[in-house]
Design brief:
It comes from Mikania micrantha. This is Integrase catalytic domain-containing protein. One of its GO terms (biological process) is proteolysis. By secondary structure, this protein is α+β, with helices and mostly antiparallel strands. Among the domains are: 193 residues, no CATH class; 50 residues. Helices cover 19% and strands 21% of the residues. The protein has 13 helices and 28 strands. The strands form 8 sheets. It has a 6-stranded antiparallel beta sheet with strand order 25-21-22-23-24-26. A 5-stranded mixed beta sheet has the order 18-17-16-19-20. A hairpin with a 5-residue loop joins strand 17 and strand 18. Helix 10 packs across helix 11. The longest helix is centred in the middle third of the chain and has 21 residues. The protein is elongated and about 140 Å long. The N and C termini lie far apart (95 Å).
Length: 649
């Protein structure tokens, strides 16, 4: 579309403008041919008839020695130059212009030579060549307006702005009024520029460059004011929002922005980076933490403590009755794993709990570094905290699927650890902690469904040869210290440890029968199968027969739904009016490797067992005398290389 720009009005033009209604006439090509150098005005014609029939227009042509010429076929742009030199440097806004044009090369960038045939044709017929094409911009109160494809015409006196292209390129609108015009942001409606009407031509007067918010104080105060108005958003959100509104505050540094109200009321913990500890072998760094308290389990525990080897991510879990039991348990655990793996425990990482603070003298004596977390910062002990979550979620899932009461949580959590240690993990390149620690993959053929129906072999404990040789039990996990399965009798509340067990994996007795009836209370005494009177107990430690059965042993368990009992035995309780069964002959079995969940009684040591060359030497604990503290816990031992893999065919 050719451009026609208004100029100063002559007498003839003024006479034309005296008519009531006039419209702007746009021609695609020049309509004048004259030897004179006058600047033709806007072409006006009274509404209702064509230009060729307008007598006033004909008189105007005659007085100025002008004549109509046929349209040219060359693409041109009609321009009429203004007679206002004082405004010549101001950009002129033209709603009919199809291109931006300027003669100021210094204001342009990304220039390239113009190779097209187009040219700028003035109203007097003079054609002005286009030398280059490039980009330019107009500063505004908030953001510059981009001018694309600007034509560089060296002989042009004015800067021409195409309103249509300006609006499309910058997503703005232009509103014209009799004495001024506005350029506004289309999305927000924010006013970006105000122009003026001078002699019926709309100019954009030069604006002062933005003060870059002139002073830093003014900038900060303005940004802080918006921060208060918008409800104290973060500085990143605030800047993004203001930029969308056409307000540029990017020059304000985030580090300098501060709001007391936000600092006082939005204080939160900082994110934690990756663990900086580097280890190359087991036991260089062990994480530990105590979990609880919870409902007392059916075997008398209210807490558990875990030890996690940072090198292999292998977990040892030990149920305990009190937090203070950690101070007795840790020295035994240290001796156990150091002898088995033939390496020293170097560092211990824990929280600042009293159970670990009490270990400081022992750790210092044995040259063990002790790292602790700051107060109320459990995230720094993330290795142990994440294991808590995994153990609890897995254990509760096992209980829920088997419909077992929560009183069996200690068995479920120990089973969960047994399984977690054998599951591949991404952090170990999809190796299991067991394989990482023992350098051999675990076997999975002996795994059974927790809480399912099972039938342990109990012939040594039958009342006679014609009594049943088994009973319905519930599978409660793996007794790695005895290389056997744990089978719970819900009627007698006894816990059998047996190697010979038949499993029905798809049947869960608690699902079918619900909770068993409450049995008669079991006397809280040490039970023996001999005719001699039982010895007086000297402590609350667990008792165990010195000669366990070659295939199975049993431990009476209290009713999980009634009063907590502490009696444990390796033989069934004699029934009234029936002689007790004779104990089976003791048979030597290989001593298992350290286990994460098994137990060793703190009683008289078992008879000597010849060592198995493929297994670590047997571990015996000295009996605790009355002068030494007697914790109410069983001391855990680590398990063999694959629990049952080394003992079961």
């Amino acid at each position: 579309m050719p451009l026609i720009i208004g100029s100063s009005l002559s007498n003839a033009e003024s006479e034309i403008l005296q008519s009531d209604f006039y419209i702007i006439i746009w021609y695609p090509e020049p309509i004048f041919s004259s030897e004179t150098t006058i600047d033709p005005p806007f072409l006006f014609t009274p509404a209702g008839h064509e230009t060729k029939d307008c007598r006033k227009f004909a008189r105007f042509l005659q007085q100025n020695n002008l004549a109509l010429t046929p349209a040219s076929t060359n693409p041109t742009v009609n321009v009429s130059m203004t007679n206002s030199p004082q405004h010549a440097s101001w950009p002129m806004f033209d709603s009919g212009a199809s291109n931006h044009a300027t003669s100021d090369q210094a204001s342009m960038h990304n220039l390239s030579e113009y190779g097209g045939p187009d040219e700028i044709v003035l109203g007097n017929g003079i054609a002005l060549p286009i030398s280059h094409i490039g980009q330019a911009s107009i500063p505004t109160s908030s953001r510059p307006l981009t001018l694309s494809n600007v034509l560089l015409v060296p002989r042009l006196r004015n800067h021409l702005i195409s309103v249509a292209k300006l609006c499309k390129t910058n997503n703005v609108s232009v509103e014209f009024f009799p004495f001024h015009f506005f350029v506004k942001d289309l999305r927000t409606g924010a006013r970006l520029m105000r122009g003026v009407n001078i002699n019926d031509v709309y100019y954009a007067p030069p604006t002062q460059p933005r003060l870059q918010l002139n002073s830093s104080t003014k900038t900060f105060n303005s940004l802080l004011s918006w921060h208060h108005k918008l409800g104290h958003p973060s500085i990143k959100v605030l800047k993004r929002l203001l930029n969308n509104l056409g307000l540029d505050y990017n020059n304000v540094s985030n580090n300098l922005f501060h709001c007391d109200a936000c600092s006082l009321n939005k204080s939160h913990k900082l994110p934690f980076g990756e663990n900086s500890f580097k280890v190359s072998k087991p036991l260089e760094l062990v994480y530990s933490d105590v979990w609880g308290p919870v409902k007392i389990s059916n075997d008398g525990y209210q807490y558990y403590v875990i030890f996690v080897d940072f090198f292999s991510k292998y977990i040892w879990l030990y149920p305990i009755k009190r937090k203070s039991d950690v101070s007795t348990l840790f020295p035994i655990f240290k001796t156990l794993v150091e002898k088995f793996f033939k390496t020293s425990l170097v560092s211990l990482f824990s929280d600042n709990g009293g159970e670990y603070i009490g270990l400081i003298p022992y750790l210092q004596q044995h040259g063990i570094s002790h790292f602790t977390t700051p107060p109320h910062t459990p995230e720094q002990n993330g290795v142990a905290e994440r294991r808590h979550r995994h153990i609890v979620e897995t254990g509760l899932s096992l209980l829920h699927h088997a419909h077992l009461p929560l009183a069996f949580w200690s068995h479920a959590f120990q089973t969960a650890v047994h399984l977690i240690n054998r599951l591949p993990t991404k952090i170990l390149d999809f190796k299991s902690p067991f394989e990482k620690l023992y350098n051999t993959p675990p076997t999975y053929t002996k795994l059974k469904s927790f809480g399912c129906l099972c039938f342990p072999w109990l012939r040594p404990y039958a009342k006679s040869k014609i009594h049943p040789r088994s009973t319905k039990c519930i599978f409660l996990g793996y007794s790695s210290s005895k290389s056997a399965y744990k089978c719970y009798d819900p009627v007698t509340h006894r816990l059998y440890h047996s190697r010979h067990v038949e499993f029905i994996d798809h049947i869960f007795p608690f699902t079918i029968n619900g909770l068993p009836p409450d049995p008669l209370p079991i006397p809280n005494t040490f039970l023996h199968t001999s005719t001699q009177p039982p010895p007086e107990p000297t402590s609350s430690l667990t008792a165990q027969h010195p000669h366990p059965s070659p295939a199975s042993s049993i431990t009476p368990q209290p009713n999980p739904c009634t009063t907590q009992l502490t009696t444990h035995s390796s033989h069934p309780i004699p029934q009234p009016n029936h002689p007790p069964p004779s104990p089976p002959t003791s048979v030597s079995q290989p001593t298992p490797a350290p286990s994460p969940t098994a137990t060793i009684p703190l009683s008289s040591p078992s008879p000597h067992v010849p060592p198995d060359p493929t297994q670590p030497p047997p571990i015996h604990s000295e009996p605790i005398t009355s002068s030494s503290p007697a914790p109410d816990l069983v001391v855990p031992v680590d398990n063999d290389h694959d629990n049952f893999g080394a003992y079961f065919p």
